[in-house]
Specification:
Distance between the termini: 29 Å
Number of strands: 17
Shape: globular
Bound molecules: 6-O-phosphono-beta-D-glucopyranose
Strand content: 15-25%
Radius of gyration: 24 Å
Number of helices: 15
Oligomer: single chain
């Protein structure tokens, strides 16, 4: 979106580490296919999957094709487009700490440059657990594959970029260690820290809503806002990712990144320009002022949960502790709900309710801003009338849209008031399907535009917030898990927590602003 014309995507070889994991099949290759289908993928772009499992090029392509059939937004795939792309997909087997394997990779990349005219342009995409990131960077560097250079999109053969999938580290210390390895080997301009939420259309629209309209800015502050809720709820459970999730938990998996990204975009000051660093400077300022609950406040203001056995839509579901790859006595949280404050001039005193959870009643991501009540005079003083505060809800997904709740007179001879919603649904306003986040983000990497990626200080400050909570949990007795049933909105205390602090919480659903 931002300054798009300055960043023309260029052909290169994309090397995906961790290619036998499901991100490549589910997201990356469907995104490349859809770009190719729209004529947006630079001609000659090639993909090399690098992984430990032995696979031939042919078997790799079959896997990718299968992923496309199951996960692409435009199905069935058009044969001509897929064949064209498949011919440029290859697989390279290798361990992450084997110098010879990096030597073989180098030779292969040089071959591909000859075949496709990719002129040495490289994107290394690290879709691997955080503990193997540093070994991969060292391996690439030792093989002469990692050079510190500035991207210069107007000349051929000069870009080298590295994409880091989340989670970037697992706490503040490990993120800092990773950053210092990166610092020794690359310029920050070559580094793309992925948070795919930033590529979602509705997330990009947050800045447009705020800064391309004049009516919101002067009420976007503590004088007018009473509370803000940011919710990322999923019906899904582990989906085969139990091993990863059990050592991660929802605070690291979703709150530290996706939820905080939504929060900073909602609350940052207007940036000086739309340049990547101008936006990131403002997000960083918010994170510097974000106060994590500590000590006694942590007990009062943070709820963690883990799902037990139960059923959703009639299907019997295992408890989290029974999921494949999860320890039977695991204390990993699958739900977190907390209240935080942003101690700056604009937001001082406004409570921010942040929550994320698996196996909840619905899959939805939304941000809801509740405004202050009208004074207790006129309609606000009428007997039997309970005026609810105005509320602006940004429905990030699914059912994307924006709605505003306000009071209106019920037609008739009596003076009755009722709340109604004014709604803008994406689906009917813009019939064309939105691109997937990964399409936008891969194109941005190919063009060297890092506006929709997280910067080093941003990620570290987000970890500082999350690590404060994780450390606090260490000092508390282990929770009494499981404490919520699949298909609910989390532990029962969530409802009380939200009801206690938000007078007009939408019981029985504390996390979702209803329409
Ligand atoms: C990922 C998390 O980052 O985001 C997953 O690791 C989660 O646990 C996913 O399911 C949600 O993404 P989306 O785009 O489906 O909301």
């Amino acid at each position: 979106m931002f300054e798009a014309d300055r960043y023309r995507p260029e052909r290169g070889v994309i090397v995906v580490f961790g290619a036998s994991g499901d991100l490549t099949q589910r997201k990356l290759v469907p995104a490349l296919y859809n770009l190719a289908d729209q004529g947006l993928l630079p001609e000659g772009t090639a993909l090399v999957g690098y992984g430990r499992s032995p696979l031939t090029d042919e078997a790799f392509r079959e896997r990718l094709r299968d992923g496309l059939d199951r996960h692409s937004r435009s199905r069935p795939a058009r044969a001509a487009v897929w064949d064209g792309l498949a011919r440029r997909c290859f697989y390279q087997q290798g361990a992450y700490d084997d110098p010879e394997a990096y030597g073989r990779l180098k030779a292969r990349l040089e071959d591909l440059d000859e075949q496709f005219g990719t002129a040495g342009n490289r994107i290394f995409y690290l879709a691997v657990p955080p503990d193997v990131v540093a070994p991969i960077l060292r391996g690439l560097s030792a093989a002469g594959l990692l050079e510190r250079q500035r991207p210069c999109p107007d000349e051929e053969g000069c870009f080298l970029r590295v994409v880091f999938e989340k989670p970037f580290g697992r706490d503040l210390d490990s993120a800092r260690r990773l950053d210092s390895v990166i610092d020794r080997l690359l310029d920050e301009s070559q580094v793309f820290r992925m948070d795919h939420y930033l590529g979602k259309e509705t997330v990009q629209n947050i800045s447009v809503l705020r800064f391309a309209n004049s009516i919101f800015e002067h009420i976007w502050n503590a004088a007018s806002v009473r509370s803000v809720r940011v919710t990322v709820a999923e019906k899904l459970g582990m989906e085969g990712r139990g091993g990863y999730f059990d050592s991660t938990g929802i605070l690291r998996d979703i709150l530290q990144n996706h939820v905080l990204q939504l929060l900073t975009l909602m609350t940052m000051e207007p940036p000086a320009s739309l340049a990547a660093d101008a936006i990131r400077d403002e997000k960083v300022k918010v994170l510097r002022c974000l106060r994590a609950p500590r000590g006694k406040e942590l007990v009062r203001s943070v709820i963690r949960g883990q799902y037990g056995r139960g059923a959703i839509d009639g299907a019997e579901l295992p408890a989290y502790r029974e999921e494949e790859g999860v320890a039977p006595d695991s204390d990993t949280e699958t739900f977190v709900g907390l209240r935080a404050y942003i101690d700056n001039w604009r937001w001082a005193g406004v409570p921010f309710y942040l929550s994320a959870g698996k196996r909840l009643a619905e899959t939805l991501t939304q941000v809801a801003i509740e405004f202050k009540e009208v004074p207790g005079v006129l309609f606000g003083a009428m007997e039997g009338v309970e005026l609810k505060p105005n509320r602006l809800t940004l429905r990030i997904q699914p059912d994307e849209g924006v709605s505003l709740r306000f009071a209106t007179k019920v037609p008739g001879l009596r003076l009755d008031l009722r709340d109604v919603e004014m709604d803008f649904p994406y689906g009917s306003a813009f019939p064309a399907a939105s691109p997937e986040a990964y399409e936008r983000l891969l194109l941005d990497v190919m063009g060297g535009n890092s506006a929709l990626f997280a910067r080093r200080d941003e990620v570290e400050l987000a970890w500082q917030f999350a690590t404060g909570i994780l450390d606090g949990w260490q000092e508390q007795p282990p929770p009494d898990f499981p404490n919520y049933a699949p298909g609910t909105w989390g532990p029962i205390s969530t409802e009380m927590f939200f009801a206690e602090h938000t007078r007009y919480a939408d019981a029985p659903n504390p996390l979702k602003a209803g329409r």
